[in-house]
Amino acid sequence: MDKEMEKALKSAVKNSLVDLQKHIKGEMQEIVPIFRIYTIISNGSSGNNDADWMVVNEPSHLQLKTSISDFIQLIIKSTSVVYRLEVVFRSQHAKVVETNYKREQENATNSGGAMSRHNDNNNLTEEQKWDAYKLKNALPEPDKRKSYDKPYVELVTKSKDINVLADHITKIVDEIKA
């Protein structure tokens, strides 16, 4: 399931980048403006000479390219809010184990006896009982060969398809200037 979530996030980012590319490149579709560029006729630094007049775009091509690159990074970084399922599951499991242990300990105290699951642990300290309970209810260790410890955003950022598409979008913006 964790791998499927990774694929879904990569696919969502890729689809968003493809959509951005279509808007920038202009596919045979209804044009939807996503950027506003002002063309300004400005006199040069000397002031009154007619030869100093020039056409200036605001934002400049470099500013536009930087904004698009920043936007691409924001699309990719949006996956950082999605936590690894393995991490979430293990965290939730730890909370359930702790809650169940406390409940059993409370029931044992209220009934005047030792915890039913830990009758053989009556001579142990509370810390030792807790350690034994955690060990008994522990999940198997995650497979170290898999990337469960890496956040999804790191895997999405390193995706070859996504990086190629992001570079392609940047090249399209460069071609607009020419």
How is this structure best summarized?
The chain is mainly alpha-helical.
Task: Note the main attributes of this structure.
2 strands, single chain, 2 domains, mainly alpha, 178 residues, two-stranded antiparallel sheet
Q: What does this molecule look like?
A:
The protein folds into two domains: 2-83 and 150-177, no CATH class; 85-136, no CATH class. The model has no long low-confidence stretch (mean pLDDT 82). It starts with a helix and ends with a helix. It has a two-stranded antiparallel sheet. By secondary structure, it is mainly α. Helix 1 packs parallel to helix 6 and helix 2 runs antiparallel to helix 6 (160-177). Helix content is 58%, strand content 6%.
How are the SSEs ordered, and which strands pair?
Layout: H1 2-25, E1 38-42, E2 54-58, H2 61-77, H3 85-111, H4 126-136, H5 152-157, H6 160-177
Helix pairs in contact: 1-6, 2-6
What is the gyration radius calculated from CA atoms?
29 Å
Question: How do the strands line up in the largest sheet?
Answer: 1-2
Q: Helix and strand succession?
A: HEEHHHHH
Helical stretch count?
Answer: 6
For the largest beta-sheet, the strand count, sense and barrel status come to:
2 strands, antiparallel
Structural class: mainly alpha
The helix fraction, in percent, is 55-70%
Indicate the low-confidence ranges by residue numbers.
Answer: none
What is the count of β-strands? Answer: 2
Calculate the terminal CA-CA distance, rounded to whole Å: 46 Å
Chain-averaged pLDDT: 82
